[in-house]
Amino acid sequence: MSTGTDPLAPLAQLPGVPDAVAEVRKAVDRLYGHRVMRRRAAEVTSESALRGARASAAVAGADWPLEEVRRRTDFGLDTEARTVGAALRMAAEAGQLLSVWRHSPLQVLARLHLLAVGDADPAAGRPRRAGERADELFPLELEPVESVEVEAGTGPLPVLPPAPDAEEVAARLDQLSRLLVARAEGHGVGTPALVVAAVVHGELLALRPFGTHNGLIARAAQRIVLIAEGLDPKSICPAEVGLAELGTGTYRRALAGYLAGTPEGMAAWIAHCGRALRLGVRESTAVCEAMQRGMA
To answer: Where is the Fido domain (predicted)?
Structure first.
């Protein structure tokens, strides 16, 4: 089947997106060619998971120092600790969920939510039902003023629309799942991994399908897509680090572009995901350099 049948294919041709894809590919290839990767790839993967989880939790409101995350063993004491623990559990299991993702992405999303909240929660692993509300995506921010700005930079933060109701969530999740399964079966394989990952990330943020931890789940799903699509098969490029470094305000503006659905907004969102991924590559490159110095 030709790539023209892939509904995501037009997004790859939006202004600026081919450049973003090429820059990401170049950065990732350079990291994979680092001499440390020949001997210590597993260690780089583990460190990437830790740093990505810390950053994802920071975006969700639990901004702990890396060494605090590294040394702690109890993540059930308070809300921030539970958020960090949830992010760590998702990161630890993301690579193991790849085979399930290829034929049942919704099952993986349910598993990610279960990892986040624990099986004692009656809502664990199931999408929101009618009348149930979703959590806040950006709890660290002050209440934004009215604005429709979507570009990165300064200025008022955009007001994001409320999460869709349960019926719309179910329909759009099913559509997303069908798209991803079709790709796993070889349809639409020409669409770049960055584009696919950005759409999955953005759609899950838009839907907020679960009552809690939707941001963590969306970012973990993006990581799984980058592995599944072959861009980052060893999971060493923590895009979550880049998202945290770029800031939640910029993240929110870019997401507003995705939610608007305009060509400009979609291109800006994909470019934002690309910038975050390149910053994640930079983080892991620094890890490799530190390991190399230690081997000298």
So the answer is: 104-272
Burial class from Cβ neighbours inside 10 Å (0-12, 13-18, 19+) for residue 92 reads middle
Q: Amino acid identity, residue 132?
A: E
> What CATH number has the domain bearing residue 37?
1.10.3290.10
Nearest residue to 276 via CA among 50, 94, 20? 20
| Structure confidence at residue 185 as a pLDDT band (50, 70, 90) | confident
The whole-angstrom separation of Cα 67 and Cα 50 is 10
Rounded Cα gap, residues 59 and 77, in angstroms: 19
| Structural domain that includes position 214 | 3-295
- Report how far apart, in Å, the C-alpha atoms of 44 and of each of 90, 243, 245 are: 17, 19, 20
* DSSP output for 213-239: -HHHHHHHHHHHHHHHTTSSTT----H
Can you give the C-alpha Rg of the chain in angstroms? 18
Residues 45-55: tens digit of each pLDDT: 999 999 999 99
Q: What is the number of other CB atoms lying within 10 angstroms of the CB of residue 16?
A: 13
CB atoms within 10 A of CB 14: 18
Report the candidate in 40, 9, 60, 18 with the shortest Cα–Cα distance to residue 288: 40
Tell me if residue 62 falls in helix, strand or coil: coil
pTM score above 0.90: yes
Q: How many CB atoms lie within 10 A of CB 77?
A: 10
C-alpha–C-alpha distance, residues 291 and 296, integer Å: 9
Residue with tokens 């559509």: 175
Each residue's pLDDT tens digit, 6-28: 899 999 999 999 999 999 999 99
- Counting the structural domains of the chain, the total is 1
Those residues with Cβ within 8 angstroms of residue 76's Cβ, 6 or more apart along the chain or in another chain: 82, 85
